[in-house]
Design brief:
This protein is α+β, with helices and mostly antiparallel strands and 492 residues long. 51% of the residues lie in helices and 7% in strands. The strands form 3 sheets. A 4-stranded mixed β-sheet has the order 1-2-7-4, sandwiched between helices. Strands 3-9-8 form a 3-stranded antiparallel β-sheet. It has a two-stranded antiparallel sheet with strand order 5-6.
């Protein structure tokens, strides 16, 4: 019977069309995605997302929907994986199937699939193999780089002493000190902390870290064709990238002029030699575009996460002076007035525990780098389609209450046994895990220990009189501390 009322007729037709569309979508979509919050038309689940710190919402949703659930950002479905067991299963047991990178509008425009951080497939494999082998060749984990870090930590101590106990903002000084380590590996040089070139590079990197994690970036990535008319977030980020790329290209152009195949001084030299060797190969990986982006990637990764962790460390030492006092005591007992060395670390369980807890509590890359499936994947009872974005949420691992007794607190005893000995925790994976884990992990660990102990050996860190110490993370792709000032009071 056909309805006589026109409105009823129109609604009936719409319902029939929706049923047909749903039926055919169901028929052609054999995938079994995990359940999640009900999405709204067009916006998906954006209305429930904390766009300043989306990882907090993602972690909270896991309490209702379980370790694996589906979140919809606009019209794109994203699989979120939470908790140590599920994340380890994804990144280690399904390493190849989840080694891809998804299409994320702003990141695609910035990185263009080059380099190592956001590349995929054979290009990523070639760049990662080269990066790992070359970092080892130029000292990662060896005495040469330890000496370079020790030397740089002394420059940083001198800089802190120059403030004579008065309040100062430490961000540029720490950024400069840490970046000089990766600059040494990339370019065989160091910059003075006031060098305008270095300060400009740091400023642009820091701005892009904030831009790629801001609310407008979330909206831009969800609706790129629409949001490009309403925000300049892409324009700003690309302007910074293009300027940094220009600096990098000038640098390796100069290196090419001085290249000696038998005397490779740094990573850029090694890449240029590989480029010459590869020329007869029709499938090229060692291109100028990959060199430019790889240098960008390594400078970014080599500076950002380590310097942010150190800034969290000094803030937490001010917040918890009784913990700072215990670190001082252990440094005095084991090292005294000598320069810290990596070999001392095994005799310093409390300091080691504090550094690990700074990394855990600081939660520097809370949402991890985005992953994507490289093929259809059966994962924990669900069938995930090739190309779907997967977020192995590091926040949910580092704050997993099944593995960390006081997960929401800064508690170095997470890494100590009842006798005060250092204990490793399997859920401690701040560098992620599997084939996409941080290539510079061993270098970062050495830097954190050397810089932190050298600074604590020389200073007591205190908040300026009347200052409140806020542990709320700033907005950005990484979770850095809010800007703060500190007083470095000399101990010796």
């Amino acid at each position: 019977m056909i309805p006589s009322d026109p409105i009823t007729l129109v609604l009936s037709i719409i319902l029939c069309l929706l049923f047909v569309l749903f039926f055919f979508e169901w028929k052609k979509n054999p995938y079994n995605l995990p359940p999640g919050p009900r999405p709204l038309p067009i916006i998906g689940n954006l209305h429930i997302l904390d766009v300043n710190r989306p990882y907090l919402t993602m972690h909270e949703l896991s309490k209702k929907y379980g370790a694996v659930y589906t979140l919809q950002l606009g019209v794109e479905k994203v699989v979120v994986i939470c908790g140590y067991e599920a994340v380890k299963d994804a990144l280690v047991n399904h390493a190849d199937e989840l080694s891809g990178r998804p299409n994320v509008a702003l990141l695609d425009e910035m990185y263009k699939g080059n380099g190592v951080t956001l590349s995929s497939n054979d290009n990523w494999r070639a760049m990662r193999r080269f990066t790992l082998s070359t970092l080892r060749d130029f000292g990662m984990g060896k005495d040469a780089i330890e000496n370079k870090i020790s030397e740089e930590s002394n420059f940083l101590v001198q800089k802190f002493r120059s403030y004579k106990g008065e309040p100062f903002d430490n961000i540029l000084n720490i950024n400069a000190a840490v970046s000089n380590i990766i600059v040494y590996i990339l370019l065989s040089k160091r910059f003075d902390y006031e060098d305008p070139t270095l300060l400009k590079l740091i400023k642009m990197y820091n701005e892009n870290t904030m831009l790629t994690g801001c609310p407008m970036a979330v909206l831009y990535n969800t609706y790129p064709s629409v949001m490009r008319w309403f925000t300049n977030v892409s324009e700003k980020a690309l302007r910074n990238v293009n300027e940094m790329h220009a600096f990098i290209r000038d640098t390796f152009t100069n290196h090419r002029k001085q290249l000696d195949v038998n005397d490779q001084r740094n990573l850029i030299d090694s890449f240029l030699v590989k480029q010459q060797e590869e020329k007869p190969n029709p499938k090229l990986y060692f291109t100028n575009e990959n060199l430019t982006q790889l240098t960008y990637d390594l400078f970014e990764a080599g500076m950002e996460t380590t310097s942010t962790t150190l800034r969290w460390g000094l803030l937490l030492m001010m917040k918890y002076p009784e913990i700072q006092k215990k670190v001082h005591s252990e440094i005095d007992k084991v090292i005294g007035s000598n320069e810290p060395q990596v070999i001392h670390r095994r005799e310093m369980p409390y300091t080691d525990a504090v550094i690990h807890e700074i990394q855990r509590f600081g939660n520097i890359v809370p949402a991890n780098m985005p992953h994507a499936t490289t093929q259809d994947v059966n994962f924990r009872g669900y069938l995930l389609p090739k190309g779907i974005q997967v977020i192995p949420l590091l926040t949910s691992v580092l704050y997993d209450k099944d593995h960390f007794e006081k997960a929401d607190e800064f508690y170095p005893e997470h890494f100590l046994d009842s006798s005060g000995n250092f204990v490793r925790k399997e859920a401690f994976i701040p560098f992620s895990a599997g084939k996409r884990s941080c290539a510079g992990e061993s270098l970062a660990k050495m830097e954190l220990y050397m810089f932190f102990t050298r600074l604590l050996q020389n200073f007591t860190f205190k908040a300026p009189p009347g200052a409140a110490l806020d542990l709320t993370p700033a907005v950005g792709f990484t979770a850095s501390p809010m800007p703060y000032k500190m007083c470095a009071i000399p101990r010796v």
